[in-house]
Amino acid sequence: MGLINRFMILLKQKVNILLNRFEDPREGLDYSYTKQVELLNKLRRDIAGVITAKKQLEMQKAKLWENIRTLEEQSRRSISQNREDLAKLALERKNANILQLQPLDKQIVDMKTEQDKLEQTEKRLATKVEEFRSKKEVIKAQYSAAEAQVRIKESVTGVSEEMANVGMAMSRAEDKTEKMKAKAQALDEMIDSGVLTDYTNKGGDIIERELEKVGVAASVDEELEKLKAENAKKKKKSALEQQQEDQEKKQEVEV
Fold first, then answer.
1. What confidence tens digit (pLDDT) does each residue in 135-162 have?
2. pLDDT band, residue 193 (cuts 50/70/90)
3. Is the CB of residue 40 less than 8 Å from the CB of residue 119?
4. Inter-residue contact 237 to 231 (CB < 8 Å)
C-alpha cells in the first residue's frame, strides 16, 4: 500500500508539472469571462421570460375587464327589454370574471416583484462581469509584458554567453598568434647567429652568400669592361670612317 501511495503522489506531481508547463493564465481568464457572460445572458433570458409571462397575465386581465364591461352592458339592455333572465345570466358571468381577476392581480404583482429582483441581480452581475473583464485585460497585458521581458532577458543571456565564448576564443587565438610570432623571431635570431641552419634558404649559409656576392660583383665588372671595349671600338671605327671621308672630299677638290 505504501508503494502505491508513493506512486500516486509521484504521478500527481508529474501531472501537475506538466499542466503548469502548458497552462496559460490568459486562456483561463478568457474561459472564466466566457462562463460569466453565459451566466449573465441566461439571467437576461430568464428576465425576458418573466416579463413575457407578466405581459400575458396583463393581457388576460385586460380581456376579463373587457368581458366584464360587455356583460354589464348586456345586463342593462336585458333589463330594458324586460328580459330579467338574460340580465341575471349576464351578471352571473360578470361576477365569474371578477372572481378570475383577483388571482390575476396577485400573480401580476408577484411577477413584477420577481422581475425587479432579477433586474437588480442582472445589474449587479453585469457590473461584476464588466469589472472582471477590465481586470482580466489588465492581468493579461501584465502577463504578456512579463513574458516578453523573460524572453528578452533569456535572449540577452544567450547573446551574452555567446559573446563571452567568442571573446574567449579570440583571446586564445591572440595568445597563440603572439606565441607563434615570438617563436618565429627566436628562430630568425638563431639562424642569423649561425646556431641553426635555414635549409629553406637556397643561398646556403652566410659564407656561401658572401661568395655569391663576390662572384656577382666580378661578373658585373667583367661585363662592364666588355661594354667599355665595345664602345671604344665603335668610336675608333667611327673616327676612321670620318678620316677616310675627309680624304675623299679633299681629293675631289684637287681634281
1. 888 888 887 888 788 778 777 676 556 6
2. low
3. no
4. no
Whole-angstrom distance, CA of residue 150 vs CA of residue 173: 34
CA gap 66, 97 in Å, rounded: 10
Distance CA 76, CA 162 (A): 108
State the Cα–Cα distance between residues 119 and 12, nearest whole angstrom.
Answer: 45
Using CA atoms, how far residue 83 sits from 79, 87, 160, in Å, is 5, 6, 112
Cell triple for residue 240?
676612321
User: How many Cβ atoms from other residues are within 10 Å of residue 67's Cβ?
Assistant: 16
Give the integer Cα–Cα distance in Å for 158 and 151.
Answer: 10
18 to 11, 22, 51, 191: CA distances (angstroms): 11, 7, 49, 71
pTM of the model: 0.47
Q: How many whole angstroms separate alpha carbon 104 and alpha carbon 54?
A: 10
